[in-house]
Each structure stands twice: as structure tokens, then as C-alpha cells.
Specification:
By secondary structure, the chain is of the alpha/beta class. The protein has seven helices and ten strands. The strands form two sheets. A six-stranded mixed sheet has the order 6-7-8-3-9-10. The chain has a four-stranded antiparallel sheet with strand order 2-1-4-5, with helices on one face. α5 packs parallel to α6. The structure holds adenosine-5'-diphosphate (ADP) and magnesium ion (MG).
Length: about 220
Amino acid sequence: MSTVLEAKSINKYFEKPTRFHVLKDINFKIEKGEFVSIMGKSGCGKSTLLYILSTMDTEYEGALLLNNEIISGQSSNHLSYIRNKHIGFVFQFHYLLADFTVLENIMLPAKKLGEKSLVEIEQDAYDKLKLLKIEHLALKKASQVSGGEKQRVAIARALINNPSIIMGDEPTGNLDSHNADNVFTIFRELCDKQHLSLLIVTHDEDFAKRTDRIIQMEDGRIIS
Ligand SMILES: Nc1ncnc2c1ncn2[C@@H]1O[C@H](COP(=O)(O)OP(=O)(O)O)[C@@H](O)[C@H]1O
Ligand SMILES: [Mg+2]
């Protein structure tokens, strides 16, 4: 097995309004092809941790490794490249550009990466649409598809650069149980068939129970 993501002794403090130790000695690894969930009460530090793991927040102590490369302390340009190439995100809200088509939304991160021609990127985007069974939505405006479909578009967008890991902050938090189940099934297949790694923060115990491993947090610590 190969390790995709590793957190070593991560500590974080917020300085305002008063000094607050929000993450306390966080250590864990995610292997290739592993589907891991993070659970814990509201305010225990889950989103703060995901912000660090996704390289968006660089104000912490400790080390973060992606594909065995130390990424703590890298320049913001390099971090932005690493993030776009290796990490796919799915949030509670989809953040699609309403006036762009589904296809254009999915192509955007690949255009930003700039490693392929537009023709290749469009083909890749169609492949992801097929994988998520939403090919028929390609030319619709993002504002014209349903909530459940939007979340599938957001997953396709997260996959466009063939990331090493998908991270999600309550990606099913805004969906009804049917659409939440669809998203779970998509994640499960991405893990089982494409050996993608997934790290998903969730409040949904049924969702978490069906992942390979649950990281339980309490007051800024991993308790199991
Ligand atoms: N920018 C910030 N400045 C100060 N405190 C913050 C900031 N962001 C979050 N917090 C606090 O840190 C704790 C963890 O927040 P968060 O990571 O959002 O929790 P969770 O996602 O588990 O609900 C909470 O007590 C929250 O109020
Ligand atoms: Mg949160």
C-alpha cells in the first residue's frame, strides 16, 4: 500500500479573539484507495483540519505529506499547483458558476492547470460526466440542474485533474437522503474501481459507518 496523505503532529492555534488551541497533536495517514470519514461534534475542529490538509491554510505547526512529499512550508504558488493537481474538493454547497454550462464548470480546474489542450480537456470532462451518469446535462447552464445533479457536477469537477485524493466538508449536508445515498455510492465506486482515496467530513452516521474507517474528533483531538 502507498500513503497518499499524512499528518504529523499538527497543532494549530487561533490568536483572536483570544489564543485558542484548536487542533491538538493530529496524526494519521490515508492510504491509496482508502475511504475515510471524519466525525465529531460541531466546533471540534473538522473544517479547520480540512483547510490545513487541503493546503489552503498554512498557519500551523507540524508536517503534512502528500504522496510522501513534504508540503508544509512550500511557496504559495507551488501549493496552489499541488492543490489543483492532486486534491479534489467537494463542499456542502457546490460553488458552481451559475451562468456557465455544466461542461464548462467541469473543465475549469483543468484549464487552470494548463497541462492539456482544450480538446483533450473537453474529452476528459465528458469522460467524468459519463462516469457520473450525467452526460445529458453537459450543455445545460449550472443554474438549470437540480440540487442532487449539481453535487454530481461538483464531484465531476473535483475529478477532472485525476487527483490523488478527494476531500469533502459535509458534501451530503445539504442533500435529501436519496441524493445523499447517490453521492455515497459514487464515492464508494470511485474508491473501489479507481482506487481513489477519499477523506470526507460528515455528520451522517449511516454514511460514516459505510466508509472503511472513521476518524473521531473531540475538542481538537483525534480520539479514535
Ligand atoms: N477564524 C477563526 N478564528 C477563531 N476561531 C475560529 C476560527 N474558525 C473557527 N474557529 C473556532 O474553532 C473551532 C473549530 O471550528 P471548525 O473547525 O469550524 O469546527 P467544525 O468544522 O468541527 O464544526 C470552533 O470553536 C470555532 O468557533
Ligand atoms: Mg465544519
